[in-house]
Amino acid sequence: MTTRILSERDVGSLFSFDEGIAALADALSRLQAGVAVMPSRGLLRVGRGSDDLQVLTMPAHVGPGAPVVVKLSALAPGNVAKHLPLVHAIVALLDGCSGQVLALLEGASLTALRTGAMSGLATKLLAREDARSVAMIGAGEQAKTQLAAVCAVRDIERVRIHSRTRSRAEALACWAQALKLPDVTVSATVEQALAGADIVCTATSTSSPAPLMSEDQIRAGMHVNAIGGVDERACELPPRALGRCYTVVEQREAALAEAGEVIEAIRLGVTTPSQLVEIGEIVAGRARGRSAADEITIFKSVGIAVQDAAIAALLYDKALAGGVGVNVALGA
């Protein structure tokens, strides 16, 4: 019995946003249909402060014939100040019948890619067709996949980047220029980055309830992908804005437990759980996408296990077909 090992480089070489977005849409449809199985994620906190280590277990099975996928990830907010990765993770694929360990995949890169692909799907469904400008708030590894995914579904011409660490913003701008985007610059403030933006992506490691922007900076016609924040207390967006926006989440249960903006907006009474729309409902045709050019749409992501399951299974199949990765005998 052998297990296929896929490194970070392997994961990156096998992934494409077009295929990833399609795989996520299929998995979310299966979740809506009740075919996918996804227990609540397990959470272990180590420590008592804002820099607590959070260890999460996320199992899922998207349906007959698919592997069982379990992601084990560690989120360490204190790593940012130490110049270490915020997230470390590994993804295990088990045979859906025998339980054999089919593969182990490097999980931090997979997480960044599937999170980007989710924003790509949300942008495809919710952003204006003529959206051409992007504001990136945050400039870590997640920001790269956010921007790449948005560019995969819209013809982006203008990018404005803001980060609390200017050197990171400049590094992301250099990376973005390599994508042949015609107009990429670093903005000194969030306000400057948001000016004229059609699409906004927030990808920060904030643990603060203080929003990154004011409510009046979220303007008519915008689409916002909010994927950052490290726990249920964190708010990248002003919670009151959710009361005047079409708010889409991956799963109501997960958003109500983990999305700081959603939790606070409900506490303030500006929205209700029933007003939240699951993105799978839009994919399945049970809910609408954007209804007007001046509508404000928000996709608030916390990450759910079927996303990891869909992308991991896709990459595993491609690895087998292409002979990518290393086989290791873990057992006798």
Number of domains: 2
CATH H-level superfamily title of the largest domain = NAD(P)-binding Rossmann-like Domain
Most strands sheet: 8 strands, parallel
CATH architecture of the largest domain: 3-Layer(aba) Sandwich
CATH class of the largest domain: Alpha Beta
Task: Jot down its keywords.
332 residues; alpha/beta; ornithine cyclodeaminase, domain 1; Rossmann fold; 2 domains; eight-stranded parallel sheet; seven-stranded mixed sheet; 15 strands; 34% helix; 23% strand; globular
Please, could you describe this protein's structure?
Helix content is 34%, strand content 23%. It is α/β, with parallel strands linked by helices and 332 residues long. The chain has 2 domains: 3-110 and 306-328, ornithine cyclodeaminase, domain 1 (2-Layer Sandwich), CATH 3.30.1780.10; 128-303, Rossmann fold (3-Layer(aba) Sandwich). The strands form 2 sheets. The chain has an 8-stranded parallel beta sheet. Strands 2-3-4-5-6-1-15 form a 7-stranded mixed beta sheet. A hairpin with a 6-residue loop joins strand 2 (42-46) and strand 3. It is globular, with a radius of gyration of 19 Å. The protein starts with a strand and ends with a strand. The mean pLDDT is 95.
Architecture blueprint of SSEs:
Blueprint: E1 3-6, H1 8-14, H2 17-33, E2 42-46, E3 53-61, E4 68-75, E5 87-94, E6 101-106, H3 107-126, E7 133-137, H4 141-153, E8 158-162, H5 166-177, E9 183-186, H6 190-194, E10 199-202, E11 223-226, E12 246-249, H7 252-258, H8 260-268, E13 277-278, H9 279-283, E14 297-300, H10 305-322, E15 326-328
Helix pairs in contact: 2-3, 2-10, 3-4, 3-10
